[in-house]
Queue: 4 jobs
Job 1
Amino acid sequence: MNTESQVVSRSVTQTLRGMPASDGAGVKLTRVIGQPRLPDLDPFLMLDEFGTDKAEDYIAGFPDHPHRGFETVTYMLDGRMRHKDNHGNEGVLVPGAVQWMTAGRGIVHSEMPEQTEGKMRGFQLWLNLPARDKMAEPNYQEFGPDKLPVVERAGVNVKVIAGQVDGTVGPVRQPATDPTYLDLRIDAGAAFTLPLPVGHSAFIYVYEGSAAVGTGRDAAVIEAQELAVLGDGSEVRLEGRAARTRAILVAGRPLREPVARYGPFVMNTREEIMQAFSDYQTGKF
Ligand code: FE2
């Protein structure tokens, strides 16, 4: 028997709930990755869930702020958000759209609600860049809901933002971390199994319903608003335990580089952080 072809189902190594946080000019959100119990999950630096139907929780938005050295991935479920940067890029993210922004050497942008009432819901993920790409030109990969392919299986609906499912490839390209980013909708009792590259960091965040993650006696029940960190293996399996379960499944190749981080700057060394401050203050972004 060829051991390399053995399937190893990933089991849950850590379960945690997000912490209430406030960011930007006072937007209320839930910080899931990037909190004391899970400061990061290489290459993932942060995961925020925002979800509210109270305008006062989001109306202040995120006025002008910088980023350098990593990527921000905004995935909208409900609501509309306008982004505008200092390189002349501007657009509105609508429900179901994703914006994969490579900050690279630096951008200054605002992310403001394009609505004064109604629901605002979605995720922002921060994904690290390797040293060689931290000072690359800023870049956007932005896809509306009609540009994100959907794969249907029995009782399962998968939107493929990055990575692939049954030969359907998501539109986002990022060779450095080779990410997988799926939005899953699973009926009660339906199961979803997917090969994932061995060695990639991976997590599942359930945002509606409940799912059993893993196989057999190893399976862990993950409730809504809980994150499951997955151990290594060659595939992942989850099963819906509520009438409608929704979850994101995210994976990526770890960079295994030193991380020097200060607010919106994520570099490899303290000196590079100092340089980022200096470049930002002297208008070099
Ligand atoms: Fe931002």
Job 2
Amino acid sequence: MATHTLSVPISLENEKNPWVAAAARFDEAAMRLKLDDGMRKVLRSAAKELTVHIPVLLDDGRIEVFTGYRVQHSLARGPAKGGIRFAPDVTLDEVRALASWMTWKCAVVNIPFGGGKGGVICDPNVLSDAELEKLTRRYTAEIIDFIGPERDVPAPDVNTNEKVMAWIMDTYSMHARHTVTAVVTGKPMALGGSRGRPEATGRGCMIVILKALELLGLKPQDSRVVIQGFGNVGGMAAKLMSAIGFKIVCMIEYDGAVYNPNGLDIAALQKHRKQTGSITGFADGEDMDKDEAMFLECEVLIPAATENVIHSGNAERIRCKILCEGANGPTTPLADEVLADKKIFVIPDILANAGGVTVSYFEWVQDRQGFFWNEQLVNQRLEEIMTESFDAVVEYARAHHVNNRIAAYMLALDRVAQAIKLRGIYA
Ligand code: GLU
């Protein structure tokens, strides 16, 4: 059980509520930083929250109404920044937590943004392309006064992609009566997207994993990697990491897992999934129980799917040396304590997956300048930022005798608190 004093005590019942999880880390970091009560109140709550109800005319002629949110947690260091997810289980609490994580993430990597997040409660798998487009455009129209290059800049997240970003950009631009590329990031290249953005989150994970290996005296060639999630983050990390010698021994998806102790051929697995619709039944690997695969012994485990997959009920069974959180919030606060006892080197989400928003920042800069960089420059600048941020977090943890997650939060909270202090409280 958690020993620190929390404004929201964590129990087995609420440990999977993302807002409780975010609050627990926030409280501990704020306490250690000795932030005063007023500042805690400012940083803890979201600055603005918008709920919209979105009517959509479905293909069969019926009208359905979907509920969506856009939350701006902080605007202290710049415009809000963060993705939009389309999923049946989206809740306001989850969007709030994710928005606050974006604030801390942008502050950890020191890019000039606050944090925001959006979500629409829907199942994109049962919507046609035309319905999805209508939903996206109407959601955009409903939040149009809330977003903008100087206000709040959305991006892809769970179940949204560059096509959805193109619709948002177009809808916003139609209302503005001119093309506004910098209103969203993660766009197609032809519409002001950045080179290197699709790979950025996976590449960022690889960069910080290489740094962690170095600290632990390990080599990529001797490192077995287990990845949960074969989407944009997990799939890219798998591809990039196997190309430099890591052995990706297991890939886990929602419908099964595939294992090969000698390392999976990621390109072939990608092809297999494209042909069959699933990673299971892959000729060059064995199918495995997806609920057991996360407990394989390995050097690196990358949960790159959803929240709360490592919790008080299973943390004891995790057998990796390095845990790199590709997803947002994959570990609950109760699990943190177990992982610490097991001496697992955790690269927390707000650092590990910050490569995505870092290249989103580059995209926003390029759009505003109308001057585009080559891929080498994007990757080089990403590497500089991820490396510096990793070093800063690890050094902070060492100097303050805290774990990497709390160090990342402390670093971030301190930066945002400083910005608020310097700006003062407007009355
Ligand atoms: N959705 C991604 C994240 O959680 C990217 C956000 C962005 O690029 O603004 O970090």
Job 3
Amino acid sequence: MTARILDGKQIASEIRAEIARDVAALLEAGGPRPGLAAVLVGDNPASEVYVRNKQRACERAGIDSRLHRLDAAAGDARLLELIEQLNADPTVHGILVQLPLPRGFEERAVLDAVDPLKDVDAFSPENVGLLVQGRPRFLPCTPHGVIQLLHRCQIPVAGRHAVVVGRSEIVGKPMALLLAARDGTCGPEACNATVTLAHSRSENLAEIVRSADIVVAAVGRPQMIRGEMLKPGCTVIDVGINRVGDALVGDVHFEEAAQVAGAITPVPGGVGPLTIAMLLSNTLASARKAVNS
Ligand code: GUN
């Protein structure tokens, strides 16, 4: 069997076109142009690429994107001061602090300083709490992108067994919540899964993964999920982006997995573009809320 390739790039492009239409409609109705402030600290090359891609996507959708750069030596106080300025700026609807921060920064304190109403990454304790309670303000971008991908590719989720491998705050934990939710932006068929949250310390990981109808790999270990760990015909969503030599590979061994799975996302061109599309969606939602508040 050779798996169907789930084209995240194509789906993200459709979503971005929908957002561009909605931004135009908001402006037409006299609303504000949505504004995203990206904060980039230091000179991590991967972060430079991510932020550039996010900015380009904003511009194409009609969202005002402003980049704020700080030196790695700037220190927490300077970064917190910048966040306070952005919190107070009514033209900024979303604030994105690109992670990881250079060594020496208090990442948690910095993220906690972002106004929850502008926290388009959904990293603040208030927004995580609202998500856990099933009344999210913003949906976390990567997990929401995965749900959109499953929905738009017509992969059934409700009642199926989903195994999330990885328990990070950014992907694994919120992914499990969205898959298990009763309802969501894509309706009840795109959630209501039976969810197992597995991780690097799980015993019998291969057995657990082999029982999954949907596998979401987000462990950050290159090609850790092998073909023999998969149930024939399952859906494999690879969130990993690992640099191995000059190549980018996922957390799934793509060639092996594609022989067993029914559907699989490639790396790159799978989940990554959807993360960006959902960031734009949150920024638009925030601008709309600002009009109504
Ligand atoms: N670094 C890796 N992924 C992300 C993300 O989704 N948001 C931010 N702010 N930084 C990241």
Job 4
Amino acid sequence: MNPSKGTRLVRLHRTQRTAFPRLLGSLLLVTAAGISSVGAAPGGQAAGSGPATAASPRPLGQTVPAPAEAKPGGSPYTITAGTRIRVEDGSREARKIGDYLAGVLRPSTGYALPVTGRGGDGIRLRIDSHDSASGAEGYTLKSNRGSVTITARGPAGLFHGVQTLRQLLPADVEKNSRQKGPWEVAGGTVKDAPRYAYRSAMLDVSRHFFSVAEVKRYIDQLALYKMNKLHLHLSDDQGWRIAIDSWPRLATYGGQTEVGGGAGGYYTKNDYKEIVRYASSRYLEVVPEIDLPGHTNAALASYAELNCNGVAPPLYTGTNVGFSSLCVPKALTYDFVDDVVRELAALTPGKYLHIGGDEAHSTSHEDYVAFMDKAQAIVGKYGKTVIGWHQLTGGTPVKGAVAQYWGYDQTGAAERKQVADAAVNGTKLVLSPADRSYLDMKYDKDTKLGLAWAGYVSVQRSYDWNPAAYLDGAPEGSILGVEAPLWSETLTNSDEIEQMAFPRLPGVAELGWSPASTHDWDAYKVRLGAQGPRLSALGVNYYRAPQVPWAAQ
Ligand code: TNX
């Protein structure tokens, strides 16, 4: 499909484990004396409690991502018709999170669940700015007969704690109509905080366009697994998806099509703001990407003057890569980049702006380096931190730049070393190895959707790697986090997005969140299997991968 990738080998049947053998996971469970961090012993039973049945609450620690620490014990808490959600008076953020939780719980429990001031039993949501244990995104959840209390230093931690609470309740809680219950939460304490600050999913809205509603649906799914970034790939050869006032034809003309010749589309500024607002209500930061200087056919087709020869190419609806380039020597090119970055930065409250930089096969190396120097300076001028695909390290990453590694097992040693050397020199890395975390890679030879240029990526393969040890020579501290990109050459709607993202996305989310000590495929696959009924209750069209022991309910 991608000519530049035609020579890549597809390797099958890879099951090797990279780190954290099962023995280590089991030892941890044994030595932790009642503290279960993984939550499932090899037999699939919950550590520290009996097997999960419909009659007993789901054991603490049986969530995805695995919590840093879970100490089961004491009586469970039961949500009843009399339960109140209690938030501190005057805390707007806690109240919003309380309302959000009530929105999840009310339809299925059928209870009123008023969100009221603090004091008394119930579900208590507390932001305590002095809570030094939890960090920016961590939380503590305590459950006993009288109450479930989630305490966090900040609202993001409180929100993540609420996701844990959701997962401790029966899967039926996710349904939209009244269900039977009982609504029990196991007794004990969860203390939790993320391993990495950057836990991202990317959606390619260029190859196929997705509506605001489809993006929101994905955001809700990411939130359940404690992801905190949504990277939107807003431009590519096949479509420009964001309105830019100073260059209106980018969207109105360049957004008019997509792979296969469909109608495409674009986000108005208000649409984009609505996505940003919705993401931030789920504690996700939007990272917008304008891919430069390659992957720009839609822009070049919209404005003839952006082309070196002054001639606009036709719109493109195929799936080749690497054939387009902005005109590096032209001054107008940098007016264009400046305008786009300025308008996009103004719409984006988040810290980052992604400028692509991948597969610039039609740009000479010198031109590439010169272009990326100028583009990075423009991003800095508008107050954003630049992210680029890892090819950026072949140029001169500015101080503070982030490189996103998307290599795979066939990536040459020299290219890996270039990225690792940049990391040694201070460039932070987001890891999205194509043969591990690319959600558009087929699971196996029978997968209908997706591509296979980086090989098949089974559920185990997408989970079973260690970000800290992944790239030889890159210091551990240089790893900002992980991303699961979803390229959409073959994907046209939410059903298809979900078929590829689930169940691999929760594994990448867990790599980003859970401590390395919890890493164990045999335990993970049981916890993941328990997500099946929850995903079904949510109407998520997940792939029932045979590697996973899917729970019946
Ligand atoms: C490579 S990953 C690309 C994309 C394709 C993707 C398909 C990257 C930075 N570039 O242009 O959509 O492969 O898997």
